[in-house]
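Archive entry: two folds, one per protein. Generate the first.
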Amino acid sequence: MTAATAEEASTLVEEAFGLTPPRPEPPPPPGWHRFSLIHCPVDEYPRFQDPRYDALRACPPDGCEVREFGEYFSLRCVRPGATLLEAVGVLCAEIRAEHGLLMTDLGIEKLWEWSSDGTDGWGAEIVGQLLLMAAERGPKLGYSVDDLVRFLRTAAVD
């Protein structure tokens, strides 16, 4: 058996053990991307009810629903974009500009896993997770955004 996404694979495993799992959501329309975006800063542990999220709870960005991810504040979103990274980046910029929060996480726990399923799949979520972590952690070490971009341009294989 094969599956196109991690959610489908989990469903197949649960069914194989005789459980009745929830079925995965249907894919969003072409040009739209479904993802979770979490505020999980590296050096603090804000909880879901933290007052800094009040404005986002009252009026989440278009296409997003407020959710609790563990004990963290998160948004579950379906947003437009040419790629998943574009959709996530635009939303992160919107939240940073309107609420002063750098969203830091896509909820990927096993970063060492991999899927070469294109610019909109699970592999793209893993890359997005790593980039969000770098965007938050690099400046804490003294790196600028330009330093991070320069690193990617220098190290990346075309």
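Generate the second and append.
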Amino acid sequence: MQRVIHRSGLFSRFLLVLVGVAVVVLCYSLLRENLPDRVTRGWPWQVELLDVQSAVAAVLATGGASLARAQYARTVRPAIGYFGRVVADVSPDGRMAWVCHLCNGGQEVAVTMDLGYWIEYTPAARASGAEDSSEWVTQAVASASVEGLGLMKRQDFALNLVGPGWPISGQQTMLLGWFTEKAMREVENVFVRVRVLDRVGDTHERVVSLLKGADRVPRHPDTPLF
């Protein structure tokens, strides 16, 4: 599932700090207001930060700002999803392939921060010496790993190169990769870890399984989605 892995320090944590400070000041003001005069003449009670009315207003203002930020963050939150289908004439020699796309179902643009790849091979490929990924790797490393099985990039398979800063507009799709039947006999799973930045500075992460539900023996193209 999609999750938030980092929130903006300025527009999230700083607001929470202000709320905390306002609550502390309110508690101090209430306690000072109800202490006897002989106590308030000593340190630190002789220091008046805010009167109770002003302290309450500060709590309401900072709390309201924090709630407004949370509501706006939910409004501009990207909705990262993906879908796959069999498409004809993807490979240069006209073979059908399983194609996976990423989509942003939200209303606002999301900016790509990073893509990581994790490859898992079929038992037959592992018997031939292929090794599953032990960590998230770059697109170049993942493609080289698959090519090590004798598969040809952009002929038997392709992993789309997406660099940092690439915008994914609302309701827009983005190609992640495609695999022919020959490639799917060797590759069991391809996971792509997608990290995007939204308008309020929060970083979202979604792990996509490119071959989830794939037709590994494609014979007919799927009907168009739209």
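Annotation attached to the second fold: The radius of gyration is 27 Å. The chain has a mean pLDDT of 90.
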